[in-house]
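Sat 14:20. Reprocessing the chain from the morning session after the first attempt stalled halfway. Input below, unchanged.
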Amino acid sequence: MSARRKARKRALDFLYEADIRKALALDLFHSRPVLELSESVYVEVLLNGVTEHLSKIDELIITYAQGWDLDRMPSIDRNLLRIALFEILWKEELDDKVAVSEAVSLAKELSTDESSGYINGVLGRIIALKPSLAL
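Finished this time. Tokens:
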């Protein structure tokens, strides 16, 4: 497993725990022992990015996740979408297809049978509209 994939998984763990504990993911991250440096750096990038852009990310999820209320969406799915949208919209050096592929792969591994297809669809809609989005 690549360092970036491990970092995405670890960031997802922190975001999921933060949802459950009603805490801040960055506070949880900083309260834990240091991870492997290459992994730790990208975990922090993801958590900072999701935190910084959370209102816009959640607005996009609410708008394009048809049929799902953000609060009723499985926490794993919601946080996979948050990570992927941060990477797609604010990490210009990363190919959008990589972000989608990683989110879909983690959904297949960690969430419901329908989650991977749903996440792929939401991300695909947002990528198609990416040039016209006001960030």
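The chain has a mean pLDDT of 92.
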